[in-house]
Write a structure and sequence with these properties.
Helices cover about 45% and strands about 15% of the residues. By secondary structure, the protein is α/β, with parallel strands linked by helices. The protein folds into three domains: about 230 residues, no CATH class; about 120 residues, no CATH class; about 140 residues. The strands form six sheets. It has a four-stranded parallel β-sheet, covered by helices on one side. A four-stranded antiparallel β-sheet has the order 9-10-11-12. A hairpin with an 8-residue loop joins strand 15 and strand 16.
Length: about 550
């Protein structure tokens, strides 16, 4: 009976969200019509003139952020992000800014539900289950048990409760997630990175017994759990949850999501940049003929870059974030004020890097993110994230770039189909202390860790040849023995995350960018893991 009552309430909530989506759709159209007027107003407010230089993250920009933080006073908080850079960046967040970021997501979500006709709007977010000092944690931060209605619409909000944290400690994150999903039966899954979702399904499939141990114990003796866990279960209950829990508990082999959480019909996640291998792998668990994939708008810790716009089933991404001044530079143009373009000066089919200004210290900040202009919607450019503009590494002047590495990876996949489209290839610079010369490691990230069926030495040799073809300096440095040959490695997703993400906070899985080339050496990542250096963490401090 409780499950039926909860689902009736979920229907009423969904109705309200869809009508809110209609209202916000109208509001967005009005904002789009006023875009160029508001951009002129922001330029005057931020003191941006034709002579204002384009800036990258450095001492001058950090000083501007400190000044903005001083104006904010005690309301100032800072999010640290490493993203694709070697040095973490400290970004200012006030209560107003955090509220605006939350409202931006609510706005996107409600308009998505209205435009796509989503009927079961209850949402499960694959956020970090541990408290950390990231922007993600700042956005989801709360204490105690969330309100009853909130739990029905957003069951992931119970993650912060000590009783759920205790379940995570005892049973693991995968088991706790499955327990919540099976009981609440949400309609929509959200994950910033598809890698988080694909890793969850990989772990559940490869170790079903461990992933279902919580459900088995709950099914066998629910009264053995503390009262707070029982209360949360009642709040989340949906129709058929007991039957689903029993089926999961009785099964010795992994069950598909349609059995564990049959109401899920939609998945929202980031699809830009370098995540295609994870999207391909995710499609094996969430087949497109049953599950709708909705691409997420672009957001970095520094700023909200685009806003989703729905026209029927089509999603466009517009530079329409609140209080952000947008300017653009063509891909091959120099970062000079005279090369800056306004949104209406972009051309369909061309790539542009985004330059932003805001009231939190960013002043003509070169994000380094390249966007492909797909055309124009509502008079504004439809911007699809393409890649990082300045992603390169150099030991001795070879300046190996992400584009060169991606070209090599594409050729390797053509020559060795065993590598598979669902396996993630990446390049990490390495200079062990006991080696006189540095080298690059080519790492194949494989969900289950099985062999690729190709000799490692053969792959490494061929990769060296291809890198020499696309980068003459690399070839020269190898021939002169200033660079050592490529070394090939095979890692599971977990091993890769543990190593590459060892210098990040617990939220790394949720927001870290999976890249074809990293700008930190293999050894520095190891030292971060062993020494746990505070500066390498994403953290938050009071001003």
């Amino acid at each position: 009976m409780r499950g039926l009552i909860n689902d009736c309430l979920r229907r009423l909530i969904a109705l309200g969200i869809r009508w809110l989506g209609l209202l916000l759709t109208i509001v967005q159209r009005v904002r789009a019509s006023m875009f160029f007027w508001s951009q002129k107003r922001l330029a005057r407010r931020y003191g941006i003139t034709s002579a204002t230089p384009i800036m990258t993250f450095g001492p001058e920009l950090e000083l501007l952020i400190e000044r903005a933080a001083a104006r904010a006073g005690k309301r100032a908080k800072f999010a640290w992000t490493s993203g694709s850079t070697a040095k973490p960046k400290r970004i200012l967040y006030t209560r107003r800014r955090l509220r605006a970021v939350k409202l931006a997501y609510v706005d996107f979500f409600a308009r998505c539900c209205w435009s796509l006709g989503i009927k079961r709007t209850s949402l499960y977010v694959f956020s970090s289950l541990n408290n950390d000092d990231s922007l993600t944690s700042m956005l989801l931060e709360e204490t105690g048990l969330p309100p009853y209605i909130s739990s029905l619409q957003a069951p992931y909000r119970v993650h912060c409760h000590p009783a759920i944290q205790s379940l995570v400690s005892d049973y693991g994150a995968t088991a706790a997630r499955l327990w919540i999903l099976a009981i609440a039966n949400p309609g929509i899954l959200y994950s910033t990175n598809p890698s988080t979702l694909s890793t969850f399904f990989d772990e559940l499939t490869s170790d079903w017994q461990r992933g279902t141990r919580l459900i088995k114990d709950w099914h066998r003796k629910p009264e053995a759990f503390v009262p707070a866990v029982c209360l949360i279960a009642k709040r989340l209950e949906s129709r058929g949850s007991n039957a689903r829990l029993e089926r999961i508990a009785m099964s010795d082999t992994s069950l598909p999501l349609q059995v564990c959480a049959p109401a899920v019909k939609t998945c929202v996640c980031w699809v830009g940049g370098y995540v295609k291998p994870f999207l391909d792998r995710l499609a094996t668990y969430l087949p497109p003929d049953r599950y709708r994939l909705v691409p997420m708008y672009s957001m970095s810790t520094e700023t909200l870059e685009t806003v989703g716009h729905f026209a029927g089933d089509r999603v466009a991404f517009l530079p329409l974030a609140s209080r952000v001044l947008y300017e653009f530079v063509e891909e091959d143009a120099e970062d000079k004020p005279q090369n800056l373009l306004k949104a209406n000066q972009l051309q369909a089919g061309k790539p542009y890097s985004m330059v932003v200004s805001d009231p939190y210290g960013l002043r003509r900040y070169q994000t380094g993110d390249l966007f492909h202009c797909r055309g124009f919607v509502a008079g504004l450019p439809d911007l699809s994230f393409s890649r990082r503009r300045d992603l390169e590494y150099s030991f001795t002047g070879e300046k190996l770039t992400s584009e060169q590495v991606m070209t090599v990876f594409q050729k390797l996949r053509e020559e060795y189909p065993q590598l598979g489209a669902d396996k993630f290839l990446t390049c990490v610079p390495s200079h062990p202390v006991d080696d006189s010369v540095p080298h690059y490691k080519i790492i194949l990230v494989n969900g289950h860790g099985e062999s690729v069926g190709v000799p490692v030495d053969e792959l490494a040799t061929r990769c060296d040849e291809l890198l020499s073809e696309v980068n003459r300096e690399y070839k020269s440095k190898c021939q002169s023995a200033r660079l050592g040959p490529v070394r090939f490695m095979l890692l599971t997703h977990k091993d890769f995350i543990d190593r590459i993400g060892s210098s990040q906070s617990n939220a790394w899985k949720a927001q870290f960018k999976f890249l074809p080339l990293y700008r930190s050496t293999w050894e520095s990542l190891k030292s971060h893991s062993e020494a746990a250096e505070p500066r390498a963490h994403i953290s938050r401090t009071q001003h």
